[in-house]
Amino acid sequence: MNVPLLDLRLQYLSIKEEIDKALSEVLEDCGFILGERVKELEARISAYCGVKHGIAVASGTDALFLSLKACGVGPGDEVITSTYSFFSSAGTIWNAGGRPVFVDIDPDTFNLDVSQVKGRISDKTKAVMPVHLFGQCAEMVPLLELASEAGLPIIEDAAQAIGATSDGRKAGSLGLLGCFSFYPSKNLGAYGDAGMIVTNDSSVADKLRLLRVHGAKPKYFHRVVGVNSRLDALQAAVLLVKLKYLDSWSARRRNNAGLYDRLLQDTEVVTPKVRKGNVSIYNQYVVRVRARDAVKEFLAKKGIGTDIYYPLPLHLQECFRALGYRKGELPRSEKAAQESLALPIYPELTPEQQEYVVSSIREALDLVSP
Ligand SMILES: Cc1ncc(COP(=O)(O)O)c(C=O)c1O
Q1: In testing the pocket of ligand 1, which one of 82, 84, 86, 310 has its CB within 8 Å of the most ligand atoms?
Q2: Pairing of strands 99-103, 78-82
Q3: Does 218 sit behind a cis peptide bond, omega within 30 degrees of 0 on the bond before it?
Q4: Mind listing the pLDDT tens digit for each residue in 135-162?
Q5: CB 156 near ligand 1, within 6 Å
Q6: Are residues 252 and 215 part of one domain?
Q7: 54 forms bridges with which residues in the sheet?
Q8: 289 lines ligand 1 (CB under 6 A)
């Protein structure tokens, strides 16, 4: 049996007619950059998140970068974030001229350990960037309290978490700014790169709209130096079709997660925990397993796709050597990097495929020595 980590073709086939029609309408219009479809997508996503503004940009990375710029992050400024994330969280802080200050994770959720944030706030701290990893919100209530006491904006890296909730509130709507990625593998995935920032703050929204078009308003009159980060209409058309299905796809992922939880119950595999008050959209289903690399290799031989998110925490990346972090300094993340393994969780996965994945994991664990 073949079980890929993700099968985007199955999803495409299930909505092919709608997608093909939406794409051909854009081709007929020839309005390719920003425009009405992008505006409609901004309105739909901001309404979905329960916030006033949506600013569509070219990627999730740009959403983070422009949010940092809009918060005034520049040389010498520090931004506190999780060391256990996709590179963009820290790379954008660095590219804005700032310095990422890393905190370790809560080992149960892989999200930043909020209790470590307070101790890392300094007079240089300009913002806090929690990451809602794998589709589950970071612990936002105490973090929002802390940030408000310290007068710091929160930029949510909600790239993996559109539709996830924290005490009933949508990911991206909790901080000053929420950043989404529509990279194809996300629960709401475009057919290329795409991203969005959502916010309730009208003046920050205006700044972001300016920054994404080279800082120009009107055209060719540049108030600030911005970047080119315009979303194109083809991606907006795809996303408008898919948004209707997002919640049902995420519910199927949750259902699949429930089945894995049950099937793996009597094994030594540590299944992912969802914090009380959170609803996860399971962009990834990440387990912890002994002899992870050997298990991964065994599963690959059985035709099962898995991946490691992430094999090296950000504080140990070569490009951040100048920040001076040492091995062992953020041990929970370093341990997670050794143990974590993402299993296939996409909505179209069948129970038979999941049973095959779990029986293959059992076989693998029988083979690798304790
Ligand atoms: C946690 C996290 N942050 C940021 C990004 C960046 O998004 P993009 O790939 O759209 O630039 C991603 C996407 O992969 C992500 O998973």
Answers
A1: 86
A2: parallel
A3: yes
A4: 999 999 999 999 999 999 999 999 999 9
A5: no
A6: no
A7: 198
A8: no
Q: Is 105 inside a domain boundary?
A: yes
Among 177, 208, 240, the domain boundary falls at: 240
Q: Identify whether 2 is part of a domain.
A: no
pTM of the model: 0.98
The pLDDT score that the predictor gives to residue 219 is 94
Q: How far, in Å, CA of 240 to CA of 19, rounded?
A: 9
Instruction: Let me know whether 132 and 199 are in one domain.
Output: yes
Query: Which mutation among 6, 61, 95, 134 tests ligand 1's pocket best, with the greatest number of atoms within 8 A of CB?
Result: 61
Angle, nearest 10°, between helix axes 202-211 and 60-70? 120
Cβ(163) to ligand 1 under 6 A? Answer: no
Where in the sequence is the domain holding 202, given as residue range(s)? 8-240
CA of 86 to the centre of ligand 1 (A): 6
360 pLDDT tier (thresholds 50, 70, 90):
very high
Residue 41 is classified by DSSP as H
Residue 368, pLDDT score: 87
- Among 191, 221, 240, identify where a domain stops: 240
Residue 104 has pLDDT above 90, yes or no: yes
Is the CB of 164 within 6 Å of ligand 1?
Answer: no
Find where tokens 């994404």 sit: 212
Domain for residue 1, yes or no?
A: no
